Amino acid sequence: MTEDSLVITYETLYEILRAEKNKEELCELDENFYVNVLNYLKEKTQILQEASSKSDIFSMDEKDNTQVQLQNIRKIIKEIYERREKKIIGMALNKSRTNSDIIDTSNLLTPEKKFFATLCDLFDNFRIGILARILKLQDPNLSIECSMDTSELNSSEKQKNEETEEESKENVQEKTKTEPITIPKPTQIPEQEKNIPESQKPEIASQTTKKIKITKATEQFIGKELEMYGPYKEEEVTEVPLEIAEILIGKGSAVEVE
């Protein structure tokens, strides 16, 4: 990607997060992604500060909307980072275990490349200092340094390691086969309850959504599972999850509709 190929907005951040969630491998990002995200956050923060310095009703609405959007933006950025972080850890662990040079690192950003290299070094050193030495009947190295020579872990030791892991898998499978499975007994229904007519039994609450009427225009926002809601116009009637409805009603932005 070129430097000008991606403009950071709320929508583009959401699309990047959705792509990271749907793909097992790292998504391709602009090399200056984190710098652009920082500038975007600074711009939004400045807008919030300017709105906070004014006292008219329009500025107060802008302040509330920007504040909510900033919270959502930070949440999205955090999850993008953590999802990429998890993938990079998996890549480094895979490289350390297999000693393979075919791990695809083309989508790593510059700071992520350093993170990946550091993790590989760390995993290799501990694997060599502990696992490899134990398999050679040597005491584990308890003062491991990142400068340790990785040539100590040769192909025969790797083969022993793979055999040990395979034996562990077989032991787990064998244990699973031999251990009895306990099936819980069904709950006994008291005789008195059996004789209660269906019409007299208490209803089980199953409502998960609530119909509301928007009393104050609301900008687009995201829920806990990163699902999008809004934007909503004043007087608009919509049905949303109970939790979202309670938040909007509590903020005075909506009322319940029977």
Set out the fold topology:
Elements lengths: L9 H13 L10 H20 L4 H42 L11 H26 L19 H24 L12 H4 L14 E6 L6 E2 L5 E2 L7 E5 H9 L3 E3 L2
Antiparallel strand pairs: 1-4, 1-5, 2-3
Q: What this model shows, in words?
A:
- By secondary structure, this protein is mainly alpha-helical.
- It folds into two domains: 10-172, Methane Monooxygenase Hydroxylase, Chain G, domain 1 (Up-down Bundle); 208-256, Ribosomal Protein L9, domain 1 (3-Layer(aba) Sandwich).
- The chain is 53% helix and 7% strand.
- The chain contains seven helices and five strands; from the N terminus they run ααααααββββαβ.
- The chain has helices spanning 10-22, 33-52, 57-98, 110-135, 155-178, 191-194, 242-250; strands at residues 209-214, 221-222, 228-229, 237-241, 254-256.
- A three-stranded antiparallel β-sheet has the order 4-1-5. Strands 2-3 form a two-stranded antiparallel ribbon.
- A hairpin with a 5-residue loop joins β2 and β3 (228-229).
- α1 runs parallel beside α3 and α3 runs parallel beside α4 (110-135).
- The protein is elongated, with a radius of gyration of 28 Å.
- Mean pLDDT is 77; it is low at 147-157, 166-190 and 201-205.
Q: Briefly, what CATH class of the largest domain? A: Mainly Alpha
Order of helices and strands: HHHHHHEEEEHE
Stretches where pLDDT is under 50 for at least 5 consecutive residues are 147-157, 166-190, 201-205
**Number of folding domains?**
2
Structural class: mainly alpha
What is the helical fraction, as a range of percent?
40-55%
Please state the average pLDDT score: 77
Q: Given the structure, what is the number of helices?
A: 7
Q: Calculate Rg over CA atoms.
A: 28 Å
